[in-house]
Amino acid sequence: MRVYTGSTRNAGLAACALTIGNFDGVHLGHQNMLARLRAEASARGLPTALLTFEPHPREFFSRDDPPSRLSTLRDKLDFLAEQKLVDAVFVYRFNGAFARMTAQDFVDRILVGALNTRYLLIGDDFQFGAKRQGNFELLASCPSFVTEAMPSVLVAGERASSTLVRERLAAGDLAAAERLLGRHYQLSGRVMHGKKLGRSLGFPTANVHLPHRRPALEGVFVVEVDTPEGRFGGVASLGKNPTVDHGDEYKLEVHLFDFAGDLYGRRLKVRFLKKLRDEARFEHLDALVEQIERDAAGARSYLTSWQREQA
Fold first, then answer.
1. What Pfam families does the annotation carry (predicted)?
2. Distance in angstroms (rounded) separating the CA atoms of residues 219 and 244
3. β pairing state of 219-227 and 230-239
4. Which of 49, 196, 212, 214 is deepest in the core (most CB within 10 A)?
């Protein structure tokens, strides 16, 4: 999979079959759309391409109160590449100039002029351009490419959407989120230096950097973690750690079972398997340690049963 950021003049694609969207989380609805795009592209002898945006337009328009992000750009691109879902991804910077671009300019300058689109597949609710004035009818009237709309994908009777995944994660329903995603929910990031309080309490933690201000879920979780040293089970806290911190910054702190080593600066992939509880504030550290011990015991018990089921 090739990835292009910024200018696409040297992309090297003579023509393409394209879809457009943020594809946050790359859930089953997105995966079905890319499968259909692949089938239509093959019938036309075209490579497949995805046009996506960074930052998410809703983050741009709601800078003071941005929505939660399901996946970083890196995680999204990694999954698309690992699953071989698309041949090329074009990442366009969403800024003020892009937001002011009219729908017709978007068609003429981006879809036709820059990307040489011959086939376009969009979601059934897709709108674009300044003030969201562009729609299916405008795209279908363009003679340079064929436009088709993808109907909604239903999972267990519900429309698969990034919004629904966020709602399920916020509610702590990881099983429902997994059904919509087709896999366990995952976050990745590099291990940063922290206060090292966990080590002094007997539970050393890896503090994983979160690139976005608001995660999609909060609480204490059973996790499975991919590290440069292998895969480990563990327990993770994702929240503001109110017992020892008084700020508004979210932190992902992961205690790995049966691991000894230095992970500073290394990248971890954290898969969330089950929510144990909501975050809580404790009056003193002894009470916190007792709760961490209960969390760790519960996580170990769950992992033993879960791994037995996977075998």
1. FAD_syn (PF06574), Flavokinase (PF01687)
2. 15
3. antiparallel
4. 49
**Which residue is it, tokens 């079905």?**
32
Which residue, 199, 287, 273, 265, is CA-closest to 234? 273
- CA nearest 122: which of 142, 105, 136? 136
Pick the CATH number of 2-159 from 3.40.50.12780, 3.20.20.70, 3.10.20.580, 3.40.50.620: 3.40.50.620
The residue extents of the domains of the chain are: 2-159, 185-310
Place of tokens 């036709």: 112
Query: Which CA distances in Å does 118 have to 28, 109, 149, 308?
Result: 25, 14, 15, 49
The vertex-12 CA angle with 32 and 136, nearest 5°, equals: 40
Lookup result for tokens 């995966």: 31
Tokens 């978007």 belong to residue = 106
Give me 280's structure tokens. 């809580």
Give, for 234, the enclosing helix (H) or strand (E): strand 230-239
What does the block give as tokens for 229?
Answer: 């040293």
What six digits make up the tokens of 276? 């144990």
Please state, in angstroms and rounded to a whole number, the distance separating the CA atoms of residues 307 and 81: 27
Contact (Cβ atoms closer than 8 angstroms) between residue 296 and residue 236: no
The C-alpha atoms of residue 177 and residue 169 are separated, in whole angstroms, by 6
Whether residue 158 contacts residue 166, with contact meaning beta carbons closer than 8 Å, is answered with no
Average pLDDT score over residue span 169-193: 95
Q: pLDDT, tens digit, for every residue of 272-291? A: 999 999 987 777 777 888 88
**Segment 46-98, tens digit of pLDDT:** 999 999 999 888 787 777 777 789 999 999 999 999 999 999 999 999 898 88
Residue of 27, 26, 32 whose CA lies nearest to 52? 26
Model confidence pTM above 0.85: yes
Q: What is the CATH number of domain 185-310?
A: 2.40.30.30
